[in-house]
Design goal:
Blueprint (H helix, E strand, L loop, with lengths): L1 E6 L16 E7 L3 H10 L5 E5 L8 H17 L2 E8 L2 H10 L4 E4 L22
Parallel strand pairs: 1-2, 1-4, 2-3, 4-5
Helix pairs in contact: 2-3
């Protein structure tokens, strides 16, 4: 079984923590935010696979984002990819992942640099400054 690390986007990648080439990004960002997310990733030369939340932007919450991340981690495990470490800054989502995926070491990235609630970004801004 292949072992990888998983990374949240906002509050992890946006504060400078970077994945290795085989690692996955599992973001609570809605599929509706894919364009601006890929623009930011391209700007920062990050080319990893990204799993987006299937909920619309206005429907997602911190809790549903955590559930999406846990479901994605379980999906990967069922398909021969074990997430061994997951970098997460949201304590609500951290607890959900730990509860539903006890084999994952969730690394809590603690800071006050980004908003935890639902925030829409454009592709033009540098999210590191939010």
């Amino acid at each position: 079984m292949k072992e990888i690390n998983g990374f949240d986007c906002d509050g992890v990648l946006t504060v400078g923590i970077r994945p290795a080439s085989d690692d996955f990004i599992i973001t609570g960002r809605s599929y509706e935010e894919a364009t601006e997310t890929y623009q930011w990733l391209d700007k920062h030369k990050i080319t990893n696979v990204v799993y987006f939340n299937c909920l619309k932007f206005d429907d997602k919450t911190r809790k549903s984002s955590g559930e999406h991340k846990a479901e994605s981690i379980k999906f990967l495990l069922d398909n021969g990819i074990k997430v061994v470490n997951f970098f997460e800054d949201d304590e609500i989502q951290k607890e959900i992942i730990e509860d539903q995926c006890p084999w994952v070491n969730v690394i809590h990235v603690v800071h006050d640099l980004t908003e935890k609630e639902n925030v829409r970004h454009t592709g033009d801004e540098d999210w590191n400054e939010i």
